[in-house]
C-alpha cells in the first residue's frame, strides 16, 4: 500500500500545526485511490516528528512512502534536514521504499496558485 | 498601476532567496496584463525587506499594492509579522492602497499542487 507523509516545519502556534493535520485529512480523502495511507508529521515543534510519521505509515501497512515536504523553497530544511531525518529511518524499514518529493515551489502549478491567491483580495 | 509584492521569509541560503526573486520575475511575465509591477521582498535575512519592496513598488508608480505572502501556514509570520511590517509603512504612502492576500495553504488549488508534486516521484 502506498503512503504519503506530508512533512511541515512545525510551529509553536498550535493552530498552524492543526492546519497541516487538517490538510493531510483532506488529502487522504482526495487521493485515497492512489494513496491508501496519508499522514502528517513535522520537522520540529510538534509531538509527531518525521520518525513518528514514518513509523505510523509502517504500522498501517505501507509498502512505499512518499515524504512530501510542505515547504516552498529549497532551503536548508528541504536540502539537508528532511533528508537527514528520513535517511536516519531507512535501516529500520528495509522493506519499505521511502522517497522524498520536491519542495512545492518547484511545481508548475505554483504560478496559477499565486495569481489566484492574489486575486482573492477584493 | 497595480503592484504585486511577493513576500517570502528569507533564508541564510542565498540560493533560496534567489528562487523567490526568479519566481517574482516569472510572475511578472505571466500576470503583466493584471499587475504592471511585480517585486519580491523578504521578512528577514535578505537585503530587500518589506519596506524596501513597498518603496520600490511606489517608485515604479504603484497606485495599489497587494502583498502576497509566500507562506504555507498562518503561523506567526503571516498573522503578526507581515501585517506589522506593512502597517508600519502605511503612513508613508497615503495614496497607495496596500492589502495583504491570504497565505498560500488557504488556496483551493493547494490539493492539486500537493498531489501532482507527490506524483512526480518515480
Please report which band the strand proportion of chain A falls in: under 5%, 5-15%, 15-25%, 25-35%, 35-45% or over 45%: 15-25%
Q: Of all protein chain pairs, which has the greatest interface, and how many residues does each chain bring to it?
A: A-B, 49 and 49 residues
Kindly identify the CATH topology of chain A: Rossmann fold
* Poorly predicted regions of chain A: none
- Count of domain modules of chain A: 1
> What is the N-to-C order of secondary-structure elements of chain A (H for helix, E for strand)?
EHEHEHEH
Class by SSE composition of chain A: alpha/beta
Strand order of the largest sheet of chain A: 2-1-3-4
What kind of assembly state do the chains in view correspond to?
homodimer
First CA to last CA of chain A: what distance? 44 Å
Rg of chain A, alpha carbons: 15 Å
Arithmetic mean of pLDDT of chain A: 95
Give the overall shape of chain A: globular
Q: Could you list some keywords that capture this structure?
A:
homodimer, 122 residues, alpha/beta, Rossmann fold
Amino acid at each position: 500500500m502506498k503512503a504519503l507523509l506530508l512533512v511541515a516545519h512545525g510551529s509553536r502556534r498550535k493552530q498552524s500545526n492543526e492546519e497541516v493535520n487538517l490538510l493531510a485529512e483532506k488529502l487522504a480523502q482526495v487521493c485515497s485511490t492512489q494513496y491508501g495511507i496519508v499522514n502528517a508529521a513535522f520537522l520540529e515543534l510538534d509531538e509527531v516528528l518525521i520518525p513518528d510519521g514514518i513509523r505510523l505509515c509502517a504500522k498501517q501497512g505501507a509498502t512505499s512512502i512518499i515524504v512530501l515536504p510542505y515547504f516552498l523553497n529549497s532551503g536548508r530544511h528541504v536540502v539537508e534536514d528532511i533528508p537527514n531525518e528520513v535517511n536516519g529511518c531507512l535501516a529500520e524499514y528495509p522493506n519499505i521504499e521511502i522517497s522524498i518529493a520536491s519542495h512545492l515551489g518547484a511545481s508548475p502549478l505554483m504560478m496559477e496558485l499565486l495569481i489566484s491567491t492574489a486575486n482573492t483580495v477584493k
